Give the backbone structure.
Amino acid sequence: MTTFEKLRFEGRGDREVVMTRRFDAPREAVFDGFTKAELLQQWLVPPGWEVTRCEIDLRPGGSYRYEWRGPDGNPMGTTGVIREVQAPALLVQTERFEPTWYPGEAVGTLELVEENGVTTAIHTMRYESREARDMVLAAPMGEGAAASYDMLEQLLRGGALAAGAAGR
C-alpha cells in the first residue's frame, strides 16, 4: 500500500488496485466530476500533459474516449465501454490504453459514499492478470492519480461542481 497525502493506493488480491480518496463535497458533485466531459478534461490530466479529446456517452453500453499529448509530444489514449451507471453512487466501465502499457483490458468500479457532506471515492481496477496488475503497481499511476484527484478537489472547492449538482 502507498499513501499519498490524500490518496490511498493499494493492491488487493491478485488482480486489483484500489484507490480511495475523500472529497469535502456532496457525491452528486463528485459524480459529475467523474462523468461530465467538460469537467473531466479539467482534472483528468497527468502533470505536464494536455487533454486533446474527452468524450463520454454515459449510459450502459455507451463508450468513452480520452486522449492526451505528453510533454514530449507523444499521444496516449484510453477507451472503454460503460457497463453500469447508478448516479450518483456507482459507475462501472472497461479500460484499455493506447499505446498499451499493461496487457489486456481492465474493469473499473467507482463507488461514491457520502457521509455528512464528505464523499469517499473508492475506485477499484480489476485487471485480466496478476502480471497486468503488478505492472500498474510498478508504474507511476499512483502519483498521477493523486495529482489528478487534487485537481478535482480544487474544482470542487471552487464551487462549479457543487453549484451544478444543486441545479439538477
Summary: The two ends are 38 Å apart (CA to CA).
